[in-house]
Amino acid sequence: MGPRLLLPLGCFVLLLPLPGTAEFSPSLDSDFTFTLPAGRKECFYQPMRKEASLELEYQVLDGAGLDVDFHLLSPKGETLVFDERKSDGVHTVETEDGDYMFCFDNTFSTISEKVIFFELILDNMGEDGEDQEDWKKDVTGTDLLDMKLEDILESINSVKARLSKSVQIQTLLRAFEARDRNIQESNFDRVNFWSMVNLGVMVVVSAVQVYMLKSLFEDKRKSRT
């Protein structure tokens, strides 16, 4: 079975998933979007193998300030990465055997919840290499085709890497689009609010001016009589 991203069942879990949805698919490229309430912290665990690579990218899509604290801890509990109140980040670490924990902390905010997107890319996890070796063993015994299996394998790996990179870029573009749309909607609501405030102020000022002019003319009439 491939690598899994497991949600903890302790006090850090805010959104409990339904049975069967507590882990990602066995692919080596996974992404997830969740809502982090104000004043709360949520952590995730990712099992890793020795001499593998863990790349994690996150973005705050919505919420006041578009910022969050990020922690990445090794299986020994050592802090590998700490980002304080950032809107996005990309981190790559060489791993060892064990469960890596990464947390998103919104305890500094008492009002605003945050919508967070993150993506995991796992390299050198061993499964692809084993499948490739098995495939190579099955075909090595035949001499029907005069070609180098290494060249074919290299071409397949190159195509696979480019396709994976394309999928990653498209996922990031969707995340950027979601964040930009949230910013535009927030600006739109803000512009409408202050436009209504300015309109109300103009109406009040106009009414006061009319009242003042009317009172000036009434004082003159009274003084003449």
UniProtKB/TrEMBL annotation:
Record-annotated membrane-spanning stretches: 193-213
Its membrane topology: Single-pass type I membrane protein
Localization of this protein: Endoplasmic reticulum membrane; Endoplasmic reticulum-Golgi intermediate compartment membrane; Golgi apparatus, cis-Golgi network membrane; Membrane
UniProt key word Endoplasmic reticulum: yes
PROSITE patterns listed in its UniProt record: GOLD
UniProt signal peptide: 1-22
Domain of life: Eukaryota
Keywords linked to the UniProt accession: Endoplasmic reticulum, Membrane, Signal, Transmembrane, Transmembrane helix
ATP-binding listed as a keyword: no
InterPro entries xrefs: Emp24-like, GOLD_dom, GOLD_dom_sf
Domain GOLD: 41-122
Main location: endoplasmic reticulum
Gene Ontology CC annotations of this record: endoplasmic reticulum membrane; endoplasmic reticulum-Golgi intermediate compartment membrane; Golgi apparatus
Family the UniProt entry places it in: Belongs to the EMP24/GP25L family.
Protein name (record): TMED5 protein
Organism: Eolophus roseicapilla
Gene this protein is translated from: Tmed5
